[in-house]
């Protein structure tokens, strides 16, 4: 594990974007695992700069999302497919068809989850998976108690996660109760992982995930076992290390 501690989100975004560019350089048809939430936003902004400068090549890039809410209307602004097109694909000039997201609108979400796991496999697996971390230590939507062997599946969101994500919705009741999330085993199969955290609210989860016991009580702690984990933190997120 390599931990980078940067003075602010902009610097963090710039260095993490360079990391991603270098990691995918020699890969012929790279597969990037992408995350939603505020943490990766500075990284996507810096990647967009590198794409327009021509250093980061996106023509053959395929992106696979970590997770998606179940049951939001197609045009809902917080549907993760829409969030990723807005924050990631459009600024980088990536075709919508190269962005793969679990189908949270499927009448059979469990079947959609299984199909998504297969799609990752058929794409050759994920070369580099970007990750944020929830305050309760979740990665993707793998809430505390998630099995380390879990694959992409339907999960119920913790109350604390629905409260944390209510800021993106008109009110708390609008936050979906379920999502389709890559499992912890799915995430651990990525050939490399890059965890991003900013802000003091993440400091305790970061400390526990990186230096505490590896336990299903704190799903992100499983990343300690990943052979190629890089962590990018700002000073506040690193303050409890
Ligand atoms: C959400 C997402 C996670 C994300 C986390 C942290 O619930 N499903 O993938 O990492 O919350 O979000 P943020 O970066 O906005 O703090």
Automatic annotation (TrEMBL):
InterPro entries: Glc/Gal-6P_isomerase (IPR006148), Glucosamine6P_isomerase (IPR004547), Glucosamine6P_isomerase_CS (IPR018321), NagB/RpiA_transferase-like (IPR037171). One of its GO terms (molecular function) is identical protein binding. It comes from the Bacteria. GO terms for biological process: carbohydrate metabolic process; glucosamine catabolic process; N-acetylglucosamine catabolic process; N-acetylneuraminate catabolic process. The keyword Glycosyltransferase does not apply. GO terms for cellular component: cytoplasm. Residues 11-225 form the Glucosamine/galactosamine-6-phosphate isomerase domain. The keyword Hydrolase applies. Gene3D superfamilies: 3.40.50.1360. Coiled coil: none annotated. Keywords: Carbohydrate metabolism, Hydrolase. PANTHER family: GLUCOSAMINE-6-PHOSPHATE ISOMERASE. This is Glucosamine-6-phosphate deaminase. It comes from Agromyces fucosus.
């Amino acid at each position: 594990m390599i931990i980078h501690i940067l003075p602010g989100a902009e610097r963090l975004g710039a260095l993490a974007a360079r990391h991603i560019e270098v990691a995918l350089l020699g890969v012929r048809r790279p597969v990037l695992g992408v995350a939603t939430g505020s943490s990766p936003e500075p990284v996507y902004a810096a990647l967009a700069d590198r794409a327009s400068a021509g250093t980061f090549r996106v023509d053959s890039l395929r992106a696979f999302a970590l997770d998606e809410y179940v049951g939001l209307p197609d045009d809902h602004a917080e549907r993760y497919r829409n969030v990723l097109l807005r924050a990631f694909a459009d600024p980088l000039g990536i075709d919508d068809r190269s962005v793969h997201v679990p189908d949270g609108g499927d009448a059979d979400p469990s079947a959609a989850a299984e199909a998504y796991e297969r799609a990752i496999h058929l794409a050759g697996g994920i070369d580099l998976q970007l990750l944020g971390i929830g305050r309760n230590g979740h990665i993707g939507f793998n809430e505390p108690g998630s099995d380390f062997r879990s694959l992409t599946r339907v999960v119920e969101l913790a109350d604390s996660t629905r409260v944390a994500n209510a800021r993106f919705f008109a009110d708390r009741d609008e936050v979906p109760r379920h999502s389709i999330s890559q499992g912890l085993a799915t995430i651990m199969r990525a050939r490399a992982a890059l965890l991003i955290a900013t802000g003091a609210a993440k400091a305790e989860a970061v400390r526990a995930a990186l230096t505490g016991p590896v336990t299903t009580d704190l799903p992100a702690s499983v990343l300690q076992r990943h052979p190629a984990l890089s962590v990018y933190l700002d000073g506040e997120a690193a303050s409890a290390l």
